[in-house]
Design a protein that fits this description.
This protein is mainly alpha-helical. The longest helix is centred in the first third of the chain and has 21 residues. It is globular. It has one domain.
């Protein structure tokens, strides 16, 4: 069993947050796809904020 360190998990979440925002920019805001991505966006925002990550520079969607 491979254990993931807290730092690796944080890095994974930051990378996913950035990647997800790139996809959201390309999607139509009214689409079901965008709405589904927004749910994950909010989840990641909560996780990263609770982990002490300053999202000021990372959050380009700002919703």
């Amino acid at each position: 069993m491979v254990e993931v360190t807290e730092r690796e998990l944080l890095q994974k979440n930051v990378e996913e947050f950035s990647r997800l925002q790139s996809y959201m920019i390309l999607a139509d805001k009214g689409s079901e796809t965008y709405k589904a991505m927004k749910v994950r966006y909010i989840e990641l925002k909560v996780i990263l904020t609770a982990s002490g990550v300053n999202l000021t520079e990372l959050d380009i969607i700002k919703e």
